[in-house]
Amino acid sequence: MSIKNEMNRKEHFRKAVWQSPFHPRTSELNILNEWHRWKDYTTANAFFDEQLEYAAIRNACAVFDLTPMTKHLITGPDALAFLNRLVTRDVAKIKPGKVGYTIWCDDNGQVIDDGTIFHLREGVYRLCSQERQLDWLTRNAFGFDVTIVEDTHDVAGLALQGPTSCAVLKAIGCTGVQNLKPFEIGFYPFAGSELTVSRTGFTGDLGYELWIDPARALDLWDALFDQGKIHGIRPMGTHALEVARIEAGFLAAQVDFHPADQAIMTDRSRSPFELDLGRLVDFSKPCFNGRRALLAEKEKGSRYRFVRLDVEGNKPARSAYIYDKDKNVVGTVTSAEWSPSAKKNIAYASLHMPWGRPDDELWAEIYYQRELKWYKVMARCRVTDQPFWDPPRKRATPAQDF
Amino acid sequence: MTDRNRIVIVGGGHNGLVCAAYLARAGREVTVVEAAAQVGGAAVTREFAPGFRASGCAHLLYQLDRGIAGELKLESHGLRFARRSLKTVALALEGDHLVLDAGKPVAGTLSEADRAGLATYRARMLKFAKVVARQHNRKPPRLGGGRSDLMGAAMLGLDIRMLGREDMREFLRIAGINVFDVLEEIFDSPLLKGALALDAVMGANLGPRSNNSVLSLLHRLSGEAEGNGGPAIPAGGMGAVSEALAASARAAGATIRTGVPVKRITLEADRVSGVELETGEKLSAGTVVSNADPATTLLRLVGARNLETGFVHRIRHFRHKGMAAKLHLALEALPTVARLSQDLAGERLVIAPDLVYLEHAFDAAKYGQTSPEPALEITIPSLHDKSLAPAGKHVLSAVVLYAPYDERANGDGARRELLDRSLAVLDRHAPGLRRQVVASELLLPADIEREFRITGGHWHHGELALDQFMMLRPAPGAAQYQMPIGGLFLCGAGCHPGGGVMGSAGRNAANAVLATERAA
Questions:
Q1: Which CATH number characterizes residue A209's domain?
Q2: Are A153 and A176 within one domain?
Q3: Do A86 and B312 touch (CB under 8 A)?
Q4: Does the pLDDT of residue A7 top 60, yes or no?
Q5: What is the least distance, in Å, from the CA of A286 to any CA of chain B?
Q6: What whole-number distance in Å separates Cα of residue B518 and Cα of residue B520?
């Protein structure tokens, strides 16, 4: 095995927080000057108005700087075997030019992280993760002929999300991009370099993620904003993305689950089944991390159930306790928002088994403040198996212009 | 098509043979496949020079379980002892040798306080060692397991509690600490302390000041605590124990094949399906029990990619670097130890004149060097067993401390150097010995690794320390002989209760195989 951490040569110790290659543009556009630190990168909370930024995602298109997302290039004769032991799903089914969402577990079948596997070219994979994973990947590499390079800094990434995103890409020269199906990857010549486009995203909408050499990052940004102006392009920060994420049904590490390798108390982590991700577990593979524990869990039953809730009223149920009808605490809300698109008060919750069955009477205890006075409401919650946001344009191929 | 009823045992070391014998006695179809030309693994007698034979690795029998020896009728299968309950002679350069017989001083100068202290110390250590010995034939409890595990843990707790309040406190106080401090608390005589400490550190990656050395000592004393008597020399060397075990296993119906190294353990989906030999021949089996060390079994024969990552990580970091070398000398005559009566020459002679000598010897090894002044445990088995050497000639067999499993202390240069240093130490105590040597052999841990196929060349397949003991041996969750692959078991010293020619791991593993069958 061969492991490289490209961060080392960046002399990261000289600077605690980096700026993304898009920073010259994002800093100019961020008229609110609102930033936070995401994986040691300066990242915008919002640029001008988080609600309008959200509106751009759903009604035009919005750009999000993805560069800080942890990325690894995985190659070598055993790359596939390595990934198949690492993650719970069958990576052989992710054909070249395809992307797959996946999770990976420890030996106890507890989720360490989730992310996406890009099968860029035959045998060349990129693994994107929410958390830093080089240590775990290194540990996994023992016994495999595989090369792992953490190249987070060497790939600049943007998410371009929203109904007009395809039109913008066509306008910057990605000919035929409309024919990419969801989870497909295309390569396009751009500014003397190659632009990698995947029809993926965190918003549950028509949208793409763009990957490019950092030296060409500003060219890409400028092209998008020049050509996108007429298509209503806007920059977006993490706040707007967060609303879209929850509507779309995606989980966030550290929010909806606590990574198993960071959990000190054993009941703090969750298995794939306990995150409603059982569909990503493929027991037909003879060996992957967590298989034995997950088989046992399937037999014995899970401890928790992850549910999507439709909450009465309009007060987001952030971090609310969930009660049964006898006022026993049966779980906690992990993410909650008012969904502007679904016009619903939505939440994800982790409930103790057996709670979360379709007919369970559940209540969220919601606190909110008005002029320094706290109010509490007990809001009735209904478990729903319907996605909160699932427009046909998300899947339609060829993608439409709008 | 997997032959579900067949059991293949990888490796015919003593534990593999014990396991084979018990499984065959239970009516199972058992085949043992051993890579070497003879059975026994590290418990073998081999010719190291024309006409001279010695036990290849372990040379004294401390802990062979009497229950196993009885049940497997080893005596009727040919096991005889050339000598039992050897005395220990701590050699002193100035000639005031200290002789201990079953722990009691029978010759040499000791203060009254030391004599009194020794009696108390000995009684107490044997009492504590009995607690350790009691666990040998039990399946170690799994933490967070079911009712039987809870019972197991309760029994261990009860054994400790039954020591009585004072001894329990003392046991808990010293079980994890170092033998240096314990001995310093009680004794004055440097020679006595050196000899007692040697028992604690032999074969381990420990100096007298290293924590866990008391535990290692209790493990060594566990045979005596069970009433086995002191160290014994089997007639025909250690190989004779293995031969008797093999005869017992064969009599029970087991097939034993030698000279057939295993290439890999084959899997079908998530279960074992048998083994593939180096020759390409495949033996199908529903159960594979491996007598090889954990790293060999899991990382090489099964392969890391067929196991989960956390488990692989633990097995990789199971500490298994050998620290002891084995010295074999062919002597043209019986050596004369200065001022030692000839009738004591056949006892267990130790050269560890004081604690600091041992600690200094260990210091070098910590940093990857062999000891400039090695400590030795010496036997001259040819005094008890004429078959080991031509008439009138003798074999000296010694454990040499320390020789780290480390590339800086490997190869011909290091081997010659340590041989030379060992001879210098021996010659100092037995002047003229060097000239009596007609042939010699020194096995460094790397040689032991190669010859006996033990990763790291560690006698016990891995350090015996609290973090690798009982339910943690070789790794938590895999300490009950069953490995995390269906049908795969370990039965060697890498599992509870560890090394020493004892047989308990083999029998416990056989029980685990049978219990798993019943549960299925």
A1: 3.30.1360.120
A2: yes
A3: no
A4: no
A5: 5
A6: 6
